[in-house]
Specification:
The protein is mainly alpha-helical. The chain contains 7 helices and no strands. The radius of gyration is 16 Å and the shape is globular. The two termini are 17 Å apart. The C terminus is likely disordered.
Length: 190
């Protein structure tokens, strides 16, 4: 599933800047994914408030950014709930330096951890697998940004991205709604 043009990092960056929100788009995405994977309700009234608390001190941003956040939520939820759509953490383009991409991954992971902790009060009673990946994600969040631009570092970055992706999917499997609870599904699609 291709990313809609409106959800490209530079568009989100411009909207966040226009709203005076000093968050990187990867942080917004990480927070949103953390909330979703923590089992936040799928009604807009259930996810928008905690997201705004995480990214904008609970203040309502301009309507254009709210619309973009809704699109980002719908796109992210579709990707997490359907393996065919290919969920991945939001990341800068490959043309960016590896240091910038590693820094963005660290920001995404930090935001994911904050979002999931906010949405899932029983995180400390999670399965041992989830506790382990949360611990590993906490270590990824501390990764050094000053990395060599070589094939070995690039391969390590790709592995960390894949780990973050799988960790999010594991958390969603544990805390997200049961498939029968997902509303608004058209039985004709499946």
């Amino acid at each position: 599933m291709a990313t809609p043009p409106s959800l490209r990092i530079e568009i989100l960056f411009a909207e966040l800047n226009a709203a005076d929100i000093a968050q990187h788009p990867v942080e917004v995405h990480g927070s949103l994914v953390g909330l979703i994977c923590g089992g936040v309700g799928q009604a807009k009234s259930e996810w928008i408030k905690p997201l705004l608390e995480l990214i904008n001190d609970g203040q309502l941003p301009p309507p254009s950014l709210v619309q973009l956040l809704e699109e980002l939520y719908q796109d992210t939820l579709a990707r997490i709930t359907d393996a065919d759509f290919g969920f991945t953490p939001m990341a800068p383009e490959e043309e960016e330096t590896l240091s910038k991409r590693v820094e963005a991954l660290s920001l995404w992971v930090q935001s994911f951890l904050t979002g999931i902790a906010m949405a899932q009060p029983k995180l400390n009673r999670a399965s041992s697998d989830v506790k382990e990946v949360i611990q590993d994600l906490a270590e990824i969040a501390q990764v050094e940004f000053d990395v060599a631009e070589d094939e070995e570092s690039e391969a390590a970055y790709i592995e960390l991205m894949e780990f973050a992706r799988m960790a999010a999917l594991l958390c969603y499997a544990e805390f997200g709604p049961e498939p029968s609870e997902i509303k608004d599904q058209d039985p004709m699609i499946h």
